[in-house]
Amino acid sequence: MFVSVVLDPGDMDSAKAVATILTRYSFKKVQRACWESMQITETKLSLMKQEIDTVTDYYDTLRIYQFPINSEFVITELRHKKWRRCNISATDKK
Predict the structure, then answer these.
(1) What number of other Cβ atoms are within 10 A of residue 72's Cβ?
(2) Sheet bearing 72-79, strands edge to edge
(3) Contact criterion met (CB below 8 Å) for 15 and 34
């Protein structure tokens, strides 16, 4: 599964804490606020999200892009200390 994480931190402390967590889960930094992994499992991703939740606050925004999950593209967002998930599937309209 391909996973990309984009972070818009509220302060430098949470940015460093999230970066440490992502590095521990084998994510590679590919841009200033973007990390990617091709080897994380759904179980580890769930654990990582729980850890991220403990080091972020109301002002941090984080998006996780995942593909494929049951042939869908999934965007998970942490904003204002709430997780939201959007599943996007390709439909074949003819």
Answers:
(1) 13
(2) 28-31, 34-37, 2-8, 61-69, 72-79, 82-89
(3) no
Is 27 within 8 Å of 35 (Cβ atoms)?
A: yes
Q: What are phi and psi of 84, to 5 degrees?
A: -130, 145
Report yes or no: 85 and 65 within 8 Å, Cβ to Cβ: no
Percent composition of the chain: helix, strand, coil (DSSP 3-state, to 5): 30, 45, 30
Tens of pLDDT, residue by residue over 7-19, are: 999 999 999 999 9
pLDDT of 94: 52
Contact criterion met (CB below 8 Å) for 60 and 8: yes
More confident site: 70 or 57: 57
Can you give the pTM of this predicted structure? 0.89
Residue 16: its pLDDT value, please? Answer: 96
Q: How far apart are CA 94 and CA 90, in angstroms?
A: 13
